[in-house]
């Protein structure tokens, strides 16, 4: 049988061992958002983080994220 400790994975965002849940703090979301240039890409690739930033009101601080317009 598998022991509980063998199911633990290293969290690349918060730098600790955990059960797969990411703690979306302000700093973590900011670092993740910096990888993207558009709101669409941020949402498409990091939906949970995007939703957290909207809920907390942090999204308006990410001035570099551009809205795409259909031309």
Mean pLDDT: 79
Q: SSE order in H/E notation?
A: EEHHH
Helix- and strand-based class?
Answer: mainly alpha
Topology, number of strands:
2
Strand percentage: 5-15%
Query: What is the rounded Rg?
Result: 15 Å
Q: In terms of per-residue confidence, which ranges show pLDDT below 50 for 5 or more consecutive residues?
A: 1-6
**Estimated helix fraction:** 25-40%
* Basic shape: globular
Order of strands, main sheet, comes to: 1-2
Ends distance:
57 Å
What is the count of DSSP helices, taking H or I runs of 4+ residues? 3
**Main β sheet profile:** 2 strands, antiparallel
In brief, what are we looking at here?
Helix content is 35%, strand content 6%. The chain has 71 residues and is mainly α. It is globular.
Layout of secondary structure:
Layout: E1 9-10, E2 17-18, H1 26-33, H2 39-45, H3 47-56
Antiparallel strand pairs: 1-2
Structural commentary:
This protein has 71 residues and is mainly alpha-helical. It has 3 helices and 2 strands, in the order ββααα. A two-stranded antiparallel sheet has the order 1-2. A hairpin with a 6-residue loop joins β1 and β2 (17-18). α1 packs across α3 (47-56) and α2 packs across α3 (47-56). The longest helix has 10 residues, at 47-56. It is globular, with a radius of gyration of 15 Å.
């Amino acid at each position: 049988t598998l022991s509980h400790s063998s199911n633990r994975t290293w969290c690349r965002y918060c730098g600790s061992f955990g059960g797969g849940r990411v703690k979306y703090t302000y700093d973590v979301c900011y670092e993740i958002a910096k990888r993207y240039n558009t709101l669409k890409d941020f949402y498409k690739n990091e939906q949970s983080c995007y939703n957290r930033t909207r809920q907390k009101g942090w999204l308006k601080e990410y001035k570099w994220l551009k809205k795409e317009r259909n031309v």
